[in-house]
Amino acid sequence: MIDAELWGSILDITAAVLLVLGAFLSLAAAVGLIRFPDSLARLHAATKPQILGLILVVLALALSLRSGAALLLLLPVVVFQMLTAPISAHMVGRAGYRTGTFDPDGLVADELQPDIEEAGRSDLAPRDTEYP
Amino acid sequence: MVEILYVIAGVLLSATAIIAMYRIIAGPTILDRIIASDVLLTTLILVVAAEMIINAHTRTIPLMVILAATAIFGTVSVARFVTKTEGGRPQGGAS
Fold first, then answer.
1. Which of A20, A40, B8, B16 is least surrounded, with the fewest CB atoms within 10 Å of its CB?
2. Higher model confidence: residue A116 or residue A6?
3. Please, which pLDDT band fits residue B95 given cuts at 50, 70 and 90?
4. The predicted structure's pLDDT at residue A73
5. What chain B residue is nearest to A47 in terms of C-alpha separation?
6. Are A70 and B31 in contact (CB < 8 Å)?
7. What is the pTM of this model?
């Protein structure tokens, strides 16, 4: 039988480990920001820890606080982030495609290109200039 | 034990914030800057949560909720107004 004090310290250590994992994911995003060559690749690296890192840190906070009221307030944080992160990633990705801030040779498939040609909207196609 | 993990988390989050600041300053395009500022804002939410874990209080939970709910506005409004320019690099401007 585990007494309350030991149980409390186990939860505290678990919370600290989850906090370190969340911080590590956020550092992974930063490494992606600095290492990847163009905006769309950086967007890919940046959007991953927005959800998983936040979930890990919120879980750590919930384990550390151990109160139902705090958990009720923490759920909206994760829900809001889950609702808004895909929208902002989509908007930035759309702007990135239209302004051509990526290397077209690095793409395996570009399914938007035929649609743009069919619609006759060459103004929406990525520009032909070299990306630095 | 727990204190060492807190210090590690603090160092990792600080490094993230510094690298994101570097990307905001260095660019080269406005999209890189807005992506980096998004990362900085997410890091800020994580830092607020980490501070609550370390100091064992609940006073800044509303700050987390508001940051998570309004993080979208800056990114979407800037991404909306990114246009092609003559210089070959996207810049802000009315589209």
1. B8
2. A6
3. very low
4. 86
5. B39
6. no
7. 0.83
Which of residues 5 through 44 in chain B touch A, CB cutoff 8 A? 5-6, 8-10, 12-13, 15-16, 19-20, 22-23, 28-29, 31-32, 34-36, 38-39, 42-43
Q: What residue segments make up the domains of chain A, in order of their start?
A: 4-124
User: DSSP letter string over B11-65?
Assistant: HHHHHHHHHHHHHHHH-SSHHHHHHHHHHHHHHHHHHHHHHHHHHT--TTHHHHH
pLDDT tens, position by position, A89-125: 888 888 887 777 777 777 777 777 777 777 776 666 6
Does B90 fall in a domain?
A: no
